[in-house]
Structures are given as structure tokens and as C-alpha cells.
Write a structure and sequence with these properties.
Layout lengths: L1 H19 L7 H14 L14 H14 L3 H27 L2 H12 L2 H6 L6 H20 L3 H17 L6 H15 L10 H6 L1 E2 L3 E4 L2 E4 L5 E2 L4 H18 L17 H6 L9 H10 L7 H17 L4 H23 L12 H6 L1
Antiparallel strand pairs: 1-4, 2-3
Helix pairs in contact: 1-4, 1-5, 2-3, 3-4, 4-5, 4-7, 4-15, 7-8, 7-9, 8-11, 9-15, 14-15
Amino acid sequence: MRIALLLVVAAGYWLWYGLSQRSINGDDGISILAAQSILHHGYPLLPSGVLYHRAYLANYLLAGSIGLFGLNDFGIMLPSLLMSLGSLWLVFRFAAEAFQRPAAGVLAAMILLGLQSQTFYATGARMYMALQFFTVLAGYCAWRGFVQGRRRFQWLTALAMAGAIFSNQQGGAVLAAVPVAVWCVRRMQGRSLDSDHGLWHQVLARDVAPQERAGGSATSVRGAPRACAISPWTTAAGFLVLCAAFYVTTVYKPPSALSRVLSHVDNRDWEADPYVLLNLDLTRWWKHVLEVESTVPFGVMLLPVVLVLAVRAARRRAGALSEAMVFTCAWLAVNAVAIMGTIYIVDWRFWFQVLPLYALL
């Protein structure tokens, strides 16, 4: 009941902000043009003749909304609004299950609702809300599926990861963040990894036994995990499909031209080295970290506190709360490295996908 009331308040607040305080801003026009082109041609061909290779899923969702409700404020705002409300609900669920108290989930959702950056994009036309929603959904489904052993969530994890990848090229971080987070928790639980299979087979092709927690301890109902029906070849094929989808979403120009694989490369760096793939400039990394401060209050100061809590949680006996802490910290850390290592331009919007993780921590 409390989360339902909070979702209604959030929807009202974000709609008020979008209708009265925020108009078409910056790159919003590009997404709207791509959506209009989808309605006319079936694919995002911009008036310049360039095929817009970014944010396929977000653009098609926007096109569907404009097609149903018309090219107006509501039609433009609806997809991002629904995605932002979905992120709010997922944060509530994750925190409530970790603490085993609904009040903790409501508090985490309220923290996310109070972030100015969340409000800014909650009704925008860009792809950032879709990226955030599917990133959080992938992590939550991985938590339920591969930590708690719910099989249907294992399949939903792969679908959510594909959604994040097709929402923005930054979504490719889930290919590393989700397996690493699951691996950290499973190591914490004391489960051994088979030597004849890699990490991806362990994460995507194992039937993790459901856990029953009582008094903060974790016990297996069916004993040791057993291999599920998914073969390693099926897992490898699925992984290659995800990688191919990630590659396609990184293309900025038509295939006939040289593609900029690196996200938002500075023109000077591009001219110096058109094949640059990674940002290895540590001074830019530090600038990225400082940019967190403009996105999350006390964002930089929160990082060492979170690190200490994660180390303490990892040393404790496996339990719902300590496992959730380690899972979220590993999830945030891999995403942060992916952001700083693949994006040259420093801007707060690139941290948007990890805002719910800050709210949880």
C-alpha cells in the first residue's frame, strides 16, 4: 500500500515537472525525429539521411507511444515515465527483500525519487530511463534467479540484459556487471566453481538451489547445485547473440563508414587515434568520479563508506542483507569501471544507470 501511494506521488510529481518545468531539451529532438521516422519508414532514419544506430528499443517504445497518443507532451513523456516508475518499484522490491522490511524499500525508493537527476530524465524523450530500468531489472532478476534460485528469473535476466543493451550502448556493462555480482555472492556462500566451465556457464547455465534463510543464515534445500538442462553450447550461443547486439548498438554511423566504437569520443582524441577503444587517462577517471557529486549528494564521500561496509559484509556469514550488500557493491563497481573506461566526455548523465544502486546502498 505504501509503495503504491509513493508511485502515485512520484507519477504526479514527475508529470508536473515535465509539463511545467521541462520542455524539449538538448538531444530530445533527435530521439523524437528517430521515433517519427520509425512511424513513417519502420526504422530510425534521420532527416539528414543518417540511420540512427543508438537506442533501438527506447526509440521504438517512443514511436509506439507517439503513434498511440500523438506527437504531444504526454505521448513523448509516457515511455520514460513508465520506466522511471518501474525503476522505483524495483528499488523498493530489492531493498525490502534484503532488509526483510517493506519500510526499508519505501525509504530506498524515496531516496531515488528525491534525486534531481532522476526527476530531470523521468519525463524526457532520451533513452536514459530505459537504460536505467533494464539495467536494474537485469540485476534484480539475477539476484532472484541465481542467488535465490528462482528459475523463471534466470530467463528474465537474459531478456533484461538484452533490453539494457538495446536501450543504449552503455547497457553492455551488464554483460560483465551481472555475472561478477552473482559470482561474488556465490563465492561468499562458499559454493565451489566447476573447473571445466567458465564464469558465464556458471552464471547462466546453472540451476542454483533455492535458499531458505532463517535467522540470517543460508541453507540449501536440495543440497549442492546441479547442472540444469541448458547445454554449454546454448549458453555460448546466447552469449554471442548478446555480444552481437552490444556491438550493433555501439555503431554511430552507417556500416559503410568507420564506426566510433568508443562512446562519446572527444573530437581531438578521435583525430589523434580513430581506433581508440578504451579511456586509459586516469585524470579523466578522476573527473568522472567528481561528476558523481553533482548527481548524488555526498556521492564521492559515500564510496569509501560503501567499500568498508562491503568488506565487512563479505566477511560475515552469508545472509540476505550481507549478500545483498556484496551483490550491489560489485554491481556498482563494475558499472563504474565500464563508465570511466569507455567514455571520454565527462558528464553526469553517464552515471544515470547506477543511480538506483546508490539509492540502495
